[in-house]
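ESCALATION

Customer reports they have been waiting on this structure for their group meeting. Please prioritize. Original submission:
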Amino acid sequence: MRAGAALPIDVLGPVGRSVDWQRLAADHWDRRPALLRPTHGAGPFEPHEVFEGTVAAAHHTTADADERVRFAVGPRRLVEPGDLLPRPEDGSFAAYDRRLGRQLGDTPFTLAVRDLHAGHHPLWARERAFLADLWDRVGQPLAAVGTTLCHGTSTPPRPDPRAATFLYVLHGRHQVHLTGPENRYWTTTAAPGDLLYWPADHEHTMHAPRSPATTVRITVPRTPSPPANHVPPQGTWSAVDTLVPDDDAPDDLPGTLPPALAATLGHLRREARPAPLHRRLAHEVLRHATDGGLRPAPAPTRPGYFTDDDSVRATERVVWTRAGGHRLVAACGHVTRTGLTARELGALIGRLNGGEPLLVGELTPPARRLLACLSAFRAVERL
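Update from on-call: job pushed to the front of the queue and completed.
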């Protein structure tokens, strides 16, 4: 039972073209909620990009597509929602809502898209740039940051309780109740353009909107992610639910491993050697340094094709390192390997990151191949 009146929630106004990350980090991060109000056009998401990202996720067939996109009518989740998902010809959430109104009438519905940033590069880049100043103050999390769209007239699904949450409102108004430690609670109404933050140890409830509303949630991992209250069964090794026999091995076991297990063990031994392990660790460090925590990053496009007369320049910061005898190069959350020497690579990337246009005809074949790959990462463009 709650005691006392609801506490006032701090409203943090804009600072320049961003939000007051300094005050959020100093006074609210992991402590208490805050309502941030970016300047117009300076929020983490743009409505048309969000709609395009939603359409891309709804019509992109992958192994995890059923888990990424969920559609429910009332309390019932539809396994195959078909034409109830947004389509390119809808053009906007408003037009999509009008079409659903003709199909569903007043029946409440919910559309949820997980990892929204993964299918739309401009949306991913905008969100990454928005969060960069926050990471400068509180540190970029090692685990992936989530981006989930919620659209409809039902109560949206709850976010991960182990993560801090930023709720950005695109359409509609949302009344939110937050409860923190020691039974403290806050009540606020978030309007379009508002960004509501609450820590991982705070619970929240939201009222279902009367008309279709759109929010995007950014979830930032703050605590370890093993399942809560998970106790390994008796006879298991650590937290892995694989039974380990306590008795002696039978006498009739074969003297060799089955081919599949032998191949797996051989692969593990090769990858655990110092050079491959160093390359794998460097790969993850470079990816972490360029993806802003937003994983998975949008997939690369086709490698660019440049003629001798083309000039290119960098549109993203490019980083590189030596690892296990290789030179690894990264941009936009993707990593590749190059045959350039360390000196050649340092000079090339120095010119790219310095904003200098490069004439393709003056570059060596390995440098041109690297530019083609960076073009697929969306890190360079033709002038």
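Sent to customer with the following note: The radius of gyration is 25 Å.
Escalation resolved.
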